[in-house]
Each structure stands twice: as C-alpha cells, then as structure tokens.
Amino acid sequence: MTRAITLHDVSKTFARGVRVVDRLSLDIAPGEFLVLLGPSGCGKSTVLRMIAGLEEVTEGELLLDGAYANDLLPAERRMAMVFQNFALYPNMTTRGNIGFPLRVEAPQADPGPRVDATARMLGIEDLLDRLPAQLSGGERQRVAMGRAIARRPSAFLMDEPLSNLDAKLRNHLRAEITGLTRELGVTTVYVTHDQSEAMSLGDRVAVLRGGVLQQVDTPRAVYALPRNVFVAAFIGTPRINLLRGVVRAPLDGAMTIGLGKQALRLPEPLCLDHQLLRVQQGREVIVGLRSEAVRIAKPASARPGEVLLTGLVEHVEFQGHEILVHLNTGSRPAVVPDLEAPRPAARPVRRRRRDGTVLDRLRERAGALRAGPVAVVDDAEEPGPAVTAPDGRLPGDLIVRTTPDIDLRHGMQIPLLVDLAHLFVFDQHGDRICPAPARLPDLEE
C-alpha cells in the first residue's frame, strides 16, 4: 500500500529562532517520485525528517492519506528511510541487516523468504553472508535499499543516497532506483543537491532555497519555464547565461534589449510576451540564455526569430561529443548572490517594538513576502570600473554549446545567432517576466 503525503504551511524552527523551513506546502500523490532539490543546508533533509517523524513540525500540518499525522510516532507512519551514509550494522551480515527491521516488527515470523526475495530483486544474492566491511560502496547502498524494500513500506524517504559514490556508480544506481520504485509503485521522496539526479529521477522536482519553496513542477517544466532566476541558474548544465540588460521601447522604433555594447532587437510584429516587456521601458532586467539558445552561424543563415550578436572567443572546453565556447560579447554578467549558499544574503531587519500590534506584525510579514527570496542585481553601490583580463579584454560573459567539428581558437571573433523563442527575462527581484508567468485570459472566452 502506498500513500499520499501533504504538507500544508509547514515550518520548522530550531533553537534561537532559526527557521530552516518556512511555510512549505506540497501535495505528493500516491506512487509519485518527488525530488527535493536545493543547495546544501536549504532545509530539504529537515523536510524529509519531518515526514518521517524524526523532527517535530513547528507550525503547519502534515497529512498522510488525508489524516492529521503531526503527532504520529515514526513506527506508526510505515515509512522506510535510506540514508546518505548507508547506516548498516557493522557486526551483521547483509542477511542480518536486511532482516533486522522485519525481526523487530514480527519477532516470531521468519524473515528469510522476504530477505531472499529482496536480494534477488537487487541482484545481491551472493552478498548475503558478507559483512559491510567486505562490501564496496555501491554494494552497501544496495543493502541499505534492500533493508528499506523488505519492510514493504508505504513510502520511501531517500536522503542523498548516492552522494558518497563515484560518478559511474551513481549513474548505474540511479537507473536501478528508477526501475525499482516504478516496479514497486511506492511513493518516494528523494533529497539531493545534484540537479542532474533530480532531472533524471523525479516525476516532479521541488526546488528549495532557504527553506522556501521556489517552484515545484515536472523536470521539463522547471527547466523550460523557471519561475525565477534562482531556479533558472540552479538547474541546467552548463549554467544559464545571465546578462544585465536595459529595455528600450520607443514608440516610433523597434524594441531592443541593450546588452552593454550590443543589443537584442526584438522582431516585429512583437509576440505577446515581448509586448509585455514595454512596461519595463528604461529599467534594468536580467536576460537569461541557455547555451543551446545561441548558435554559431553566419547572419545569412538566420532563421525567423533569430537575431545577430558577435562574440570574441575566450576559451574552448572540449567535452568529446560537444564543445563549450566561452565568449566575450561586451555584456555585463548578472550575478545571483550566494547561488550555492543555502540562504539568501541577509537583509537588514528593523527591530519590532515589543508592544507592536497584530496589524504591525502582518505588515512586516507582507513586506517580507513582497521582497521575495531571490535578489539578483546587487547594485546598491555605484558600479566600479569593469574588471579586465591582463591583455585588456573583458572576461567571457556567454557560454555556447556547439559541435566539435567547428574549428575555434582563442581571440577569434565569430557571429552568433540568438533564438528569441528561448529568451528569458527576469526583473531586478529575480522573478520571470518573459515568457509571461501565466497565460493571459482571452477576451473572447
């Protein structure tokens, strides 16, 4: 039996008022594989431990199959957890480790048949009489998974189970986990900081930062339509190109987005998403371009919706099946502060008087919500001179993916065609404004 898991405005606060999870709401369907993704320390393991009952829920509600479960003991939740460090008993064989929770649940029953069936499923029959010290890292992780599977739980909770393994073994076990969870049909919540794991494993991905849910959607949607610049920058390899731009929308001319020494000219007639950019006239925005949204080609070969830029080759990374070209286009990169840190940079907080009213507290909370969890352009001070390379050139600001048959060398100036159908535009707070966050209603509907 699998189960639905619901988190409604769940928060977790530790000693000294440190809030590590903030008003998190999630609905996990029975049999769904949900991945909690975010940088280390963002609260994702704490969420998993609250679901398992290893941490108390400070605020909000945890529902299991629609029933209130905040106060249920871990044993009553019928969930199995797979840890990052395997957590095997060193004095027990593989058979003993897999069968231990079965003996605890039913001391009089023989766990042998279920242990053997689990070992066959994982392909570890020949390891049943070995101690953990005699096993490799991958074999130990299979044993840890077997201990969870043998219990026939209502949900699997996996806390970065592959992070201690080498890359080749991670890829192999990733495929095994996908196959096993689909075969068993058990609800799975998987925690990781590795976006490639999240994208390949999950039915849906929930991106966290600082204990705040940034976006939850299918892997394809999170990649193609990131809600904010943090999600866009955290997901995707190589990382999305983020450039500072200024929208120019004259009434008697074409709309452009200035990128330092060059500009993206938006084709006419403007599509709906580009028309909505008019309200940003004169404002600084963040332009996002995935590496596949730009190609190296002559202007004559431009397709509809592609516009021309030029770039100076700074560095070429050979990847075997492709190359990554680092280019200088004269643009100013936009920075997501502390992208790999678990929490946004701290903002100065005005101390509230102890006699503050309820209305004062509501106003304060509303202000914090409006500020949002993502700050992008940290231009509080007057920008200084641009940092240049030793030869006087600006460092690369654009990475383009291309095929290895193109001969590129350092210092070459090459034409670039930008596909505006894959253009992202974010405001100064990091929220996506193009493509539009939601479909506008049709006046004829």
From TrEMBL:
<dbReference type="InterPro" id="IPR003439">
    <property type="entry name" value="ABC_transporter-like_ATP-bd"/>
</dbReference>
<keyword id="KW-0067">ATP-binding</keyword>
<dbReference type="InterPro" id="IPR017871">
    <property type="entry name" value="ABC_transporter-like_CS"/>
</dbReference>
<dbReference type="GO" id="GO:0140359">
    <property type="term" value="F:ABC-type transporter activity"/>
</dbReference>
<keyword id="KW-0547">Nucleotide-binding</keyword>
<dbReference type="InterPro" id="IPR027417">
    <property type="entry name" value="P-loop_NTPase"/>
</dbReference>
<dbReference type="Pfam" id="PF08402">
    <property type="entry name" value="TOBE_2"/>
</dbReference>
<dbReference type="InterPro" id="IPR008995">
    <property type="entry name" value="Mo/tungstate-bd_C_term_dom"/>
</dbReference>
<dbReference type="InterPro" id="IPR012340">
    <property type="entry name" value="NA-bd_OB-fold"/>
</dbReference>
<dbReference type="GO" id="GO:0016887">
    <property type="term" value="F:ATP hydrolysis activity"/>
</dbReference>
<dbReference type="InterPro" id="IPR047641">
    <property type="entry name" value="ABC_transpr_MalK/UgpC-like"/>
</dbReference>
<dbReference type="InterPro" id="IPR003593">
    <property type="entry name" value="AAA+_ATPase"/>
</dbReference>
<protein>
    <submittedName>
        <fullName>Sugar ABC transporter ATP-binding protein</fullName>
    </submittedName>
</protein>
<dbReference type="GO" id="GO:0005524">
    <property type="term" value="F:ATP binding"/>
</dbReference>
<dbReference type="InterPro" id="IPR013611">
    <property type="entry name" value="Transp-assoc_OB_typ2"/>
</dbReference>
<dbReference type="GO" id="GO:0055052">
    <property type="term" value="C:ATP-binding cassette (ABC) transporter complex, substrate-binding subunit-containing"/>
</dbReference>
<dbReference type="Pfam" id="PF00005">
    <property type="entry name" value="ABC_tran"/>
</dbReference>
